[in-house]
Amino acid sequence: MPVIRQREKVRFASGDTSCAGWHYPGANGGCVIMAGGTSVTKEPASDQFAARFNEAGFAVLAFDHRRFGESGGTPRQIVDFDEQVADWHAAIDCATDLPDVDPDRISAWGFSLAGGHLFRVAADNPGLACAISQTPLVDGRAVAPHALRCMTPLAALRLFGRGVADALGGAFGRPPLLVPTAGPRGAVASLTTPDAMDGDLALDPDGRHTGWEQTVAARIALRIGGYRPGRHASRIRCPLLVVVCDQDQSVLADPAVRAAGNAPAAEVVHLPGSHYAPFLAAHEEAVEAQLAFLRKHVGPREAV
């Protein structure tokens, strides 16, 4: 684990609540905004990459989506795609006001579900210097059949039944019905693909993130199959780096490669391994590719 240098807690308004973040002061004027997927909070999502980006001189703003981690918003553990995209827009506004950041040199980094959000975020923010989408969920319709095959029939029925009950209960103001974010085949969990259980080893190998609640409101099972942020790829004008893992069983590589092909200024990096390989065996390769991309498109503040 790289050494995390000085960082400070920040909060910024988003919607009717606020999001919590870590600001790593930078030295070169560039800034990388970071967040993780589904229920992954800012520390396990970003610590490994944020420290390396910061060592290279970039400021970092890593944040929790609303309803998760230290951010506000109730009820808790509910993934609302539009809310989370709005949180990204608010984070960009926050980064613009940071004293060590050049507003013209802001980039965005996300993985898994957040990597999918970035296709929408980058499309709506042509002023971004660049975006890095790591093992992104870009097409729920393409991924859902594979995810279902990785469930037992009984577990799938129970998950969708719980999802319906959660959605109906939410409409009447009842607390969310939670399920584990990941589980083994046969479990009633949001994801039971072969690599879904690698998250702890990849993101929290030392068990330091004791406050990370790895659950999500079951209603996500009813919505994820219709989420297709990759459809916004053609509207992305900033440089986009899409990092895919060729043996990814959670979001699959092919949908992300196809989406990247529709973005005017996209590059694709293929890594060996499954969904969490950029945090594990392929970490150095992932970091080197992403730092090279940031240096090319964000770079240092020009002298005046």
Gap from first CA to last CA: 37 Å
Question: H/E order of the elements?
Answer: EEEHEHEHEHHEHEHEHEH
Strand content: 15-25%
Number of strands: 10
How is the main sheet built? Answer: 8 strands, mixed
Helices, by number, come to 9
Quaternary structure of the protein? single chain
pLDDT < 50 runs, ≥5 residues: none
The chain-level mean pLDDT equals 96
Shape, per Cα inertia axes: globular
Work out the helicity level.
25-40%
- List the strand order in the largest sheet: 1-2-4-3-5-6-9-10
Task: Please identify the structural class as seen in this structure.
Answer: alpha/beta
Query: Radius of gyration, rounded?
Result: 18 Å
Detailed description of the structure:
The chain is of the alpha/beta class. It is about 35% helix and about 20% strand. It has helices at about 40-55, 80-95, 115-125, 140-150, 155-170, 200-205, 220-225, 255-260, 285-295, and strands at about 10-15, 15-25, 30-35, 60-65, 105-110, 130-135, 180, 215, 240-245, 265-270. It has an eight-stranded mixed β-sheet, sandwiched between helices. Helix 2 crosses helix 3. The model has no long low-confidence stretch (mean pLDDT about 95).
